[in-house]
Amino acid sequence: MRILIIEDDAKTADFISRGLNEAGFRACCAADGLDGLFKAKSEPFDAAVVDIMLPKLDGLTVIEEIRAARLRLPIIVLSARDSVESKIKGLEKGGDDYLAKPFSFSELLARIQALIRRATATSEPTELTVRDLSLDLIRRKVTRRNVPIELQPLEFQLLEYLMRNTGRVVSKTTILEHVWEYNFDTQTNIVEAGIFRLREKIDKPFDDKMIRTVRGFGYVLE
């Protein structure tokens, strides 16, 4: 799942980004309102964290523009102002939640997860299942035949991408773009290494294998 962070303070953006990546999400940052609005309109995200005080375009205007574009994007408003009036304004402009600075990352993470649960309750499933393999998108849990499987964040993202494309052959290039967010072939073997680690956990302990290599094309989960 991808989270958009629109925050001009580099330390705060890095703090949130690192925490989200460690929690198994993919964070994308924008340092000003215009760039953040462009990303929100042009790329798919599961939630956004928007600071109010932004250069080029303030956060409240960014939120208004997102809502005007009819994007159903859950938004948490960040602000150094903790007044009731400031909270009301942030929610009236289209924010779904409000968090005052300074804040703990654990609270921010819990609020993001709650917003995603509410947003996905009526739009997308929160669990992916292929045969006896299940992936819980909210709790970040994976099981096969009810046996828990511990995955690292990138392994989880790789499995999620394969499961969302069950039965389709996905190339190394598309995996790099969607999981590692590389938009070019770096001649690296990180995809092969990632598939190898995933097979060690998903396939090796079981008789029937699910991840297959299609030589010259890529990989398929079936």
From TrEMBL:
Domain (Response regulatory) ranges: 2-116
Q: Which UniProt keywords apply?
A: DNA-binding, Phosphoprotein, Transcription, Transcription regulation, Two-component regulatory system
One GO CC term of this entry? Answer: protein-DNA complex
Q: Which Pfam families match?
A: Response_reg (PF00072), Trans_reg_C (PF00486)
The cross-references to PROSITE patterns, in alphabetical order and at most eight, read: OMPR_PHOB, RESPONSE_REGULATORY
Q: Does the keyword Phosphoprotein apply?
A: yes
Where in the numbering of this chain does the OmpR/PhoB-type domain appear?
A: 125-222
Instruction: Kindly give the InterPro entries that the UniProt entry links to this protein.
Output: CheY-like_superfamily, OmpR/PhoB-type_DNA-bd, Sig_transdc_resp-reg_receiver, WalR-like, WH-like_DNA-bd_sf
4-aspartylphosphate found at: 51
Gene3D superfamilies reported for this sequence: 3.40.50.2300, 6.10.250.690, Winged helix-like DNA-binding domain superfamily/Winged helix DNA-binding domain
- UniProt GO MF annotations: phosphorelay response regulator activity; transcription cis-regulatory region binding
**DNA-binding residues:** 125-222
- Per the record, the domain of life is Bacteria
Q: Which GO terms describe its biological process?
A: regulation of DNA-templated transcription
Cited PANTHER family: REGULATOR OF RPOS, TWO-COMPONENT RESPONSE REGULATOR
**What protein am I looking at?**
Response regulator transcription factor
